[in-house]
Amino acid sequence: MAGSGSSVQLLGYWGSPYALRVELALKLKGVQYEYIEEDLTNKSTLLLHYNPVYKKVPVLVHDGKPLAESLVIIDYIDEVWKQNPILPQDPYERATARFWAKFADEKCVPAMIGAFVKQGEEKEKAAKEARENLKTLEGSLVGNQLIGGEKIGFLEIAAAWMGIWARIAEEIADVNLIDSETMPLLNNWFDKYLENPIVKECIPPWDKLLE
Questions:
Q1: What's this model's pTM, rounded to 2 decimal places?
Q2: What is the CA radius of gyration of the chain?
Q3: Does domain 8-80 match CATH 3.40.30.10?
């Protein structure tokens, strides 16, 4: 196995969805790793050393070589450890999965955050944008064999965690982003993802996330 016997460390932060998806990729590959919890209000010298540019988690350190940014890390994990492929082998399908992952990160997530933290008209504007973008993401599920199947792949790892935080936003901020009537495919995709045993192993307890 490529990379067997090597040293793997993950610098993360409790509850971070971006650290979560790197953990999930490592577990799907069966890679042994050391998890190092970071305090983002008092960043460690280790984090500043390995990610001096952005000073953020997650950072994967493989045999002393650091990589930052979760989607880049997942790409790397899939390339180094060949077992249980995460990305499709077909070049077009691989590019498509990356496209929708980027769409989720750049379009869906910022609007969801806005719906969670903003107030009044700005909150409703962000929620409307989030729903529109999530509906666009749902359109990628129709007839797409890359996602929504039995096997967790790149897009599930990259985007399906949003189902957790969307429901937290609904409970705390009283804003409805996803439901079974307006986005049945997306809602079912999120539910299926959250029922996966490996995903359950990675996700923090619901009550702790709410806190």
A1: 0.90
A2: 17
A3: yes
